[in-house]
Amino acid sequence: MKNIFLLFFLWNIAFYSCSETETLIPIVTTTPITSKTQTTAMSGGNVTDNGGSKVTARGVCWNTNSNPTISDNNTNDGIGTGSFTSSIFGLVENTTFYYRAYATNGNGTTYGEELSFFTGIGILDQQQPIRNYGFAVGNNLNRWQSFIPSLKNISTIELYIHTSNPTGNCTVSIQSENGAITYAKQYFGTSSLPEFGWIGMEIIPPIPTTPNTKYRISIIRSVTHTPENAIYWSGDTEANYPGYCDPDPDHFNSHWDNYDYTFKTYGF
Asked: Which has the closest alpha carbon to 263: 151, 184, 149, 167?
């Protein structure tokens, strides 16, 4: 009987010793890049659990190699639980960076999920040159140009437009070839539209592409087109681009075989 009590006593000591020495580290998630330039980016994270010990440091770490740690480049964005914002500086243009949030308490450091981004607008993939003609854009005139990317993703697109006292806004989208899926879109107010010039849409995160698959750039306005209130997408009536688009069937002109719109696409 004494041996049974002794074994029970020793088992309790071992159990509680393991419980007391159990390492509990924080739980943290990574915030995707919300904005970036050629050398900077904004990210952050959220510490949802301190692991039973005060969080003494938190932030984002990054590197050009996968699985960055606090031994690499990192920010220090306060203490405790909750969400935080991180400003990443000193990046190299046209480079892929891997990043993840981290949180440190008395028991160690833990990391959020790893994400990546590309600095700069990307590498020019393809372009259709500027044309003298312009196609009117309106809420009943959805203009689009299809294309086949040769790079692994789409990071930026640019359209060459000209305007005349425009009102309302216009929406630029990247879509599947048939327009059924919209991967990214951006609204442009009239104050951001040039009289003649390029408008650009940077895509964060970039859209992964599938080999030999067509995508399309679409532009449509929130108001009806009139000659006195106009936005034109520069283009030509004679298509010579491999991924041309046909006109909207509701506004088809039989003597225009195809549209050729002026654009640039970037990726990496």
From this structure: 149
- The segments of the chain whose pLDDT lies below 70 read 1-23, 238-258
pLDDT value at residue 57 = 98
How far is Cα 73 from Cα 61, in angstroms, rounded to an integer?
5
In the chain the beta strands, taken as DSSP E runs, fall at 27-36, 41-49, 57-63, 73-74, 82-88, 96-105, 108-111, 115-118, 123-128, 133-136, 143-147, 153-164, 169-176, 182-189, 196-208, 215-221, 230-236, 260-261, 263-267
Contact 86, 46 (CB under 8 A): no
pLDDT of amino acid 245: 45
Question: Distance of CA 234 to CAs 128, 137, 262, Å?
Answer: 10, 10, 6
User: Looking at this protein, which amino acid is placed at residue 34?
Assistant: T
pLDDT reported for residue 30: 97
Q: Between the CA atoms of 13, 19, 20 and 22, what dihedral angle is there, to the nearest 10 degrees? A: 140
**pLDDT tens digits, 70-85:** 999 999 999 999 999 9
pLDDT digits (tens, 9 = 90+) for 21-41: 456 999 999 999 988 888 999
Q: What is the DSSP letter of 29?
A: E
**pLDDT of the residue at 263:** 94
Residue with tokens 């196609």, as numbered in its chain: 135
Distance of alpha carbon 180 from alpha carbon 249, whole angstroms: 16
Contact indicator for 208, 224 with CB cutoff of 8 Å: no
Question: Domains plus CATH for the chain?
Answer: 20-118 (2.60.40.10), 123-267 (2.60.120)
Per the rule left: phi > 0, alpha: psi between -120 and 50, beta: everything else, 191 is alpha
Structure tokens at 76: 């220090």
Q: What are phi and psi of 66, to 5 degrees?
A: -70, 160
